[in-house]
């Protein structure tokens, strides 16, 4: 039996960070004990017409208290339902799922990059890496979580409208600030990850990317959430890897974006 | 209490199995359920060679259901025989291999390859709506159903299940054609072809544009079709389409299904199969029914 079970857990808090980005803490010692940065959980709706779990990345892990924090954007009716839940309510969850970021970076100089709702998993990761940490956060407009990164590294911001930091995207911010690193860790929309992969290859930097795709089961059975892999995958025997099972974190050289 | 059912001479411990494509080859779900408790595991469709499947997004949720257009991604028969059959042989459950292909020759190759493997039944998928060639192309015309069923029967050493599509005007014609071709068992229904549009992106929700609708939303259609087919042919039927609990499963059995498959429910409740097994047992006990046979087709 794996570590993951579907279970009902207590919501410890629910706070709005922006109009559509919410933060919640879920109390579960087992999930907190097993979770690592970059993993995700499946959240289930109470409304029976919404069948499928919503995969949400883990933003923070508090092993002492036995709780995990999820920061998510309301993008549809399922996430809207979650946002209306309150402290003291319960929610069905399964996890932790997938493979997180590799943490054995031997004190190397790193850049952590988060784009939009890809920012939350970088927060827990930033606590675990030793060595010099530079954090690049890309937003459309409204900022969230940016202050929480300040204890762990120097924070650089890009916004599409230029209201804060570099006008443009995370690569523009890296270039404008002349950042360099031996390893990049990133999570965000696919076009951003594609740009980071190209940048990393050009500069000879190792890059670990966290991908997302529509999922049904979250445990590797349905084959909905595949990405193109460079080599024939051991499990699928074609050049497809399952984001939920082999990922969501991949070495940039493993995957075609 | 007897929950055993007979599918073409293969005796299942209980009538509950998995629907092809929703359970992999069982390995992922063995973390959640005891596969020994299932009547049978029906594997994801396997072809003669590996298939890459369709581009993503491959799924979209709809009201009470979901659309999928996975495109029958599979590792091919060689890997399947080496890895998946030995895994399933460790369990006290029947093994049903779902077979897919683009041409009659593809199907024949897989069926011949499985002839000497220790699998119990073969389910021939002539009803996948998500691949351009093969699949549903065979399943919407009575003559081609009869022909491909005959070809399968010539080559197979195991009993043959023909899996029927609901995307037809009269499913009983298709069922009769499969019976005429020598099918041993029928399974129905496969998914209904559907479409979803993302109005914010002004685009199709699926890369494939269309996909197969499954889940609780389709259950009444599936129960109706099982009832119609049960009254049109003499073959045992495996009923499926939106089953998420024992009550759903019992509807199919009472409509005439000898066995039932749990499909989409596995995705949102990995314990669904076992809950159906236990729920049926409780129903039998509560209603003092000593043999599940007494329920099959009991609603006329």
Automatic annotation (TrEMBL), chain A:
The entry's keywords: 2Fe-2S, Electron transport, FAD, Flavoprotein, Iron, Iron-sulfur, Metal-binding, Pyrimidine biosynthesis, Transport
Domain called FAD-binding FR-type: residue spans: 4-103
Needed cofactors: [2Fe-2S] cluster; FAD
Keyword set includes Aminoacyl-tRNA synthetase: no
Pfam entry (one): DHODB_Fe-S_bind
Binding site residues for [2Fe-2S] cluster: 217, 222, 225, 244
Gene Ontology terms for molecular function: 2 iron, 2 sulfur cluster binding; electron transfer activity; flavin adenine dinucleotide binding; metal ion binding; oxidoreductase activity
Pathway(s) annotated for this protein in UniProt: Pyrimidine metabolism; UMP biosynthesis via de novo pathway; orotate from (S)-dihydroorotate (NAD(+) route): step 1/1
UniProt KW Ribonucleoprotein keyword: no
Gene Ontology BP terms: 'de novo' UMP biosynthetic process
Entry binding sites for FAD: 54-57, 71-73, 78-79
Cofactor note: Binds 1 [2Fe-2S] cluster per subunit.
Purpose: Responsible for channeling the electrons from the oxidation of dihydroorotate from the FMN redox center in the PyrD type B subunit to the ultimate electron acceptor NAD(+).
Family affiliation: Belongs to the PyrK family.
PANTHER family on file: DIHYDROOROTATE DEHYDROGENASE B (NAD(+)), ELECTRON TRANSFER SUBUNIT (PTHR43513), DIHYDROOROTATE DEHYDROGENASE B (NAD(+)), ELECTRON TRANSFER SUBUNIT-RELATED (PTHR43513:SF3)
Subunit-structure text: Heterotetramer of 2 PyrK and 2 PyrD type B subunits.
Name of the protein this chain belongs to: Dihydroorotate dehydrogenase B (NAD(+)), electron transfer subunit
Provenance organism: Anaeromicropila herbilytica
From TrEMBL, chain B:
Function: Catalyzes the conversion of dihydroorotate to orotate with NAD(+) as electron acceptor.
GO-annotated molecular function: dihydroorotate dehydrogenase (NAD+) activity
Family indicated by similarity: Belongs to the dihydroorotate dehydrogenase family. Type 1 subfamily.
Residues reported to bind FMN: 20, 44-45, 98, 125, 163, 189, 215, 241-242, 263-264
UniProt-recorded name of the protein: Dihydroorotate dehydrogenase
Gene, per the UniProt record: pyrD
Pathway recorded for this protein: Pyrimidine metabolism; UMP biosynthesis via de novo pathway; orotate from (S)-dihydroorotate (NAD(+) route): step 1/1
Catalytic reactions of this protein: (S)-dihydroorotate + A = orotate + AH2; (S)-dihydroorotate + NAD(+) = orotate + NADH + H(+)
PROSITE patterns: DHODEHASE_2
Annotated active site: 128
Domain Dihydroorotate dehydrogenase catalytic, residue spans: 4-284
The enzyme's E.C. designation: 1.3.-.-
Binding annotation for substrate: 44, 68-72, 125, 190-191
UniProt entry keywords in alphabetical sequence: Cytoplasm, Flavoprotein, FMN, NAD, Oxidoreductase, Pyrimidine biosynthesis
Cofactors, names only: FMN
Major localization listed first in the record, in broad terms: cytoplasm
């Amino acid at each position: 039996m794996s570590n993951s079970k579907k279970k009902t857990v207590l919501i410890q808090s629910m706070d709005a960070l922006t109009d559509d980005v919410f933060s919640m803490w879920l109390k579960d010692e087992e999930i907190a004990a097993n979770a690592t940065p970059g993993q995700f959980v499946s959240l289930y709706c109470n409304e029976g017409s919404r069948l499928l779990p919503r995969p949400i990345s883990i933003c923070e892990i508090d092993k002492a208290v036995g709780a995990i924090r999820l920061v998510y954007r309301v993008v549809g009716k399922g996430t809207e339902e979650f946002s209306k839940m309150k402290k003291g309510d319960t929610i069905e969850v399964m996890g932790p799922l997938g493979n997180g970021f590799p943490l054995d970076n031997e004190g190397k100089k790193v850049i952590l990059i988060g784009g939009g709702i890809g920012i939350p998993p970088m927060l827990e990761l930033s606590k675990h890496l030793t060595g010099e940490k530079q954090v690049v956060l890309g937003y459309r407009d409204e900022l969230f979580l940016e202050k929480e990164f300040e204890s762990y590294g120097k924070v650089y911001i890009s916004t599409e409208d230029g209201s804060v930091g570099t006008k443009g995207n995370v690569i523009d911010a890296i270039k404008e600030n002349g950042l360099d690193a031996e390893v990049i860790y990133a999570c965000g929309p696919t076009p951003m990850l594609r740009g980071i992969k190209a940048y990393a290859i050009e500069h000879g930097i190792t890059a670990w990317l966290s991908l997302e795709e529509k999922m049904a089961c979250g445990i590797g059975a349905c084959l909905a959430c595949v990405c193109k892999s460079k080599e024939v995958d051991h499990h699928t025997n074609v050049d497809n890897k399952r984001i939920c099972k082999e990922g969501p974190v991949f070495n940039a050289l493993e995957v075609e974006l | 209490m007897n929950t055993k059912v007979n599918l073409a001479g293969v005796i299942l411990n209980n009538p509950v199995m998995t629907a092809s494509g929703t359970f992999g080859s069982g390995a992922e779900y063995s973390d959640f359920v005891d596969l020994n408790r299932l009547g049978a595991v029906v594997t994801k469709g396997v072809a003669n060679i590996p298939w890459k499947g369709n581009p993503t997004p491959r799924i979209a949720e709809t009201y009470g259901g979901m659309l999928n257009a996975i495109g029958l991604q599979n590792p091919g028969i060689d890997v399947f025989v080496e890895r998946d059959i030995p895994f399933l042989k460790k369990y006290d459950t029947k093994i049903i291999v779902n077979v897919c292909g683009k041409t009659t020759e593809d199907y024949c190759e897989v069926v011949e390859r499985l002839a000497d493997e220790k699998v119990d039944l073969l389910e021939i998928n002539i009803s996948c709506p998500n691949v351009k060639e093969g699949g549903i192309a065979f399943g919407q015309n009575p003559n081609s159903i009869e022909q491909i069923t005959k070809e399968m029967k010539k080559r197979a050493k195991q009993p043959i299940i023909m899996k029927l599509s609901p995307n037809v005007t009269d499913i009983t014609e298709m069922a009769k054609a499969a019976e005429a071709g020598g099918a041993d068992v029928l399974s129905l229904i496969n998914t209904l072809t559907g479409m979803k549009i993302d109005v914010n992106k002004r685009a199709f929700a699926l890369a494939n544009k269309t996909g197969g609708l499954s889940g609780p939303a389709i259950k009444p259609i599936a129960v109706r079709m099982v009832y119609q087919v049960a009254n049109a042919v003499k073959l045992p039927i495996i009923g499926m389409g939106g089953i998420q609990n024992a009550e759903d499963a019992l509807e199919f059995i009472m409509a005439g299904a000898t066995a039932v498959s749990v499909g989409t429910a596995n995705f949102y409740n990995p314990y669904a199969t076992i809950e159906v097994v236990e729920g049926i047992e409780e129903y039998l006990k509560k209603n003092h029914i000593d043999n599940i046979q007494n329920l099959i087709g009991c609603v006329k």
